[in-house]
């Protein structure tokens, strides 16, 4: 049998088999049921991973949106908390400032002296500072003049060094250029209080070798220098040493004022004497209000 005849026989056989299966399927419906069943399984195998991926993406997106909202809420709460802390600090600072100002207003100046308040706006202290000074927010426009005494409620802080129109610098009592005539509160021994620089004790110069001065004794302004009124507290004696080669005692003292912590100060100004008004005697202290 040649090739064309073989192909024709195969085609006829194939058609016969196809028609036989088709006829059988029309009578029984088994092939339709099988194709439907297997088609669903194949579809399920293909669709199931897609559904899983879709669920994961949906869950991830939901969590992402939730976390974004949660972060925004946390940022908002953090900002509100920071604002509340800032307001609390401002309120606390204002309350402390009001308390200090109330105490300052209760200050009683010495006789024939008036006072005004000033706020410290800058400090210049430390080993690198050429002068131990601070800057206050009052100047010549407010009546501030050079050498005006500068005090706090605890004692003398220094004197006005230079003045500007709206600000002035104050030479502090611990500066080596500072000199304040003092006298012991109990024993009345005189001396000259001098600064020795940042972080060092004050030195009381020219205290006679036979003078009586005790550690812990309060030192007051003597009024002899013409700058400070008499009787202002300045320092407290730390140590007294005697020397065989000097005519004076070595006396160390510490300031009563916390210089680094000053925020407000008082400026003292001498009032013009009225006719018939008595001038305080040298032996009477006139700063009972401090």
Question: Outline of this structure?
Answer:
The chain has 290 residues and is an alpha+beta fold. It is built from two helices and twelve strands, in the order H-H-E-E-E-E-E-E-E-E-E-E-E-E.
CATH class of the largest domain: Mainly Beta
So how many helices? 2
What are the segments in which pLDDT stays under 50 over at least 5 consecutive residues? 278-290
Order of strands side by side in the largest beta sheet?
1-2-5-4-3-12
Portion of residues within helices: 25-40%
Beta-strand segment tally: 12
Mean of the pLDDT scores?
Answer: 78
- Compute the separation of the termini in Å: 140 Å
The second-level CATH architecture of the largest domain is Beta Barrel
Describe the global form. rod-shaped
Q: Strand content of the residues, in percent?
A: 25-35%
Global Rg: 48 Å
Total separate domains:
2
Largest sheet: 6 strands, antiparallel, barrel
SSE inventory with pairings:
Elements: H1 3-28, H2 30-105, E1 113-124, E2 133-136, E3 149-151, E4 156-163, E5 168-172, E6 179-184, E7 190-194, E8 202-208, E9 218-221, E10 233-241, E11 248-255, E12 264-270
Antiparallel strand pairs: 1-2, 1-12, 2-5, 3-4, 3-12, 4-5, 6-7, 6-9, 7-8, 8-11, 9-10, 10-11
